[in-house]
Specification:
Layout: E1 7-14, E2 17-24, E3 32-37, H1 48-55, E4 59-64, H2 72-75, H3 88-105, E5 111-116, H4 118-127, E6 138-142, H5 154-166, E7 171-172, H6 185-197, E8 204-205, H7 206-222, E9 230-236, H8 244-251, E10 259-264, H9 277-289
Parallel strand pairs: 3-4, 3-5, 5-6, 6-9, 9-10
Antiparallel strand pairs: 1-2, 2-4, 7-8
Helix pairs in contact: 3-4, 5-7
């Protein structure tokens, strides 16, 4: 346990897949639970910043190292750490089983789902599919990855689809964005250290490129079906990864009574790790308290 967790346990996602579950549990009564879904190339330990804040306010955080992320190679033989997924349905299924496990242990405790970047995309996918009829109090999103900030040329997209078909695990190393994720230099330093430890990924698979675009298009095409859950979103103005204009436009189509957005024009991508995070967390806390 490197990230001030209360404890860690193995969560068996399916017969062949083990994922490490990180938990930050308040010392006293738990008034709510957050299921935190980390971003691409990251790991559940990155949830430590919001987790410790909310722990001080009686709110527990549960977070998985997603497939092919973080400690995944330690608990799954012959696997490696890189940004890869066979289908976003796998992500949704893992989160659904994880939610059901937590709900069984805490049947009467309000549950929220918090995502960042690719974790926000997964959250939206889950809310609009397997999770659409669950007893979830609300969703909290940071920098939802609904469209790449950098346009992909049609030729490169065609090639990635072809490669993903014949060699889905073919991986490339994209330019590092570590210096453009947060203005907090200490957290940037931690990101680089996590890369050296093998916790933070540096490669992206061809299959991920195809599946992420498919999921983005699916979420955008189905967002009009968002009728049930309250949603709080935090959008970063200086986001070099997820297009903030598209995020605001897509989420803005959700009924006003269900959706609250906070836009921070000077933030980099990682709102939960930004220097103004206490303001963000307090806004989220107030929103959560209205729903607990």
């Amino acid at each position: 346990m490197e990230f001030s967790e209360t404890k860690c346990e193995i969560f068996q996602a399916d017969a062949h897949t083990n994922l490490l579950s990180h938990m930050w549990i308040p010392d006293n009564e738990i008034k709510a639970i957050i299921i935190n879904i980390h971003g691409g190339l990251a790991h559940a330990g990155d949830c430590v910043t919001p987790a410790l804040f909310f722990k001080e306010h009686g709110i527990a955080t549960f977070a998985l190292d997603l497939r092919w992320h973080g400690t995944f190679p330690e608990y799954n033989k012959n696997e490696k750490n890189f940004f890869h997924i066979n289908s976003y349905d796998d992500y949704a299924t893992d989160i659904h089983k994880y939610y059901k496990m937590i709900r069984k242990e805490y049947p009467d405790t309000p549950v929220f789902i918090m995502g960042h970047s690719n974790g926000s995309l997964i959250s939206l996918k889950y809310a609009l599919s397997l999770g659409k009829n669950e007893d979830i109090k609300g969703f909290i999103l940071s920098s939802p990855w609904l469209k790449n900030k950098v346009e992909i040329s049609p030729v490169l997209l065609f090639l990635s689809r072809f490669i993903a078909t014949v060699f889905p695990r073919f991986a490339i190393t994209p330019d590092s964005l570590n210096d453009k994720l947060t203005h907090d230099r200490e957290i940037t330093k931690r990101h680089y250290e996590d890369e050296k430890k093998g916790l933070r990924g540096t490669k992206v698979s061809a299959k991920l490129g195809v599946e992420s675009l498919k999921c983005q298009n699916w979420v955008i095409g189905n967002i009009q079906n968002w009728k049930k859950y309250s949603l709080f979103s935090v959008i970063a103005g200086k986001d070099y990864l997820a297009d903030p204009v598209v995020s605001r436009e897509v989420l803005g189509s959700i009924p006003e009574e269900l959706h609250k957005t906070c836009f921070y024009k000077d933030n980099f991508h990682e709102n939960y790790n930004e220097v103004n995070r206490d303001e963000i967390f307090n806004n989220i806390l107030n929103w959560m308290n209205e729903r607990i």
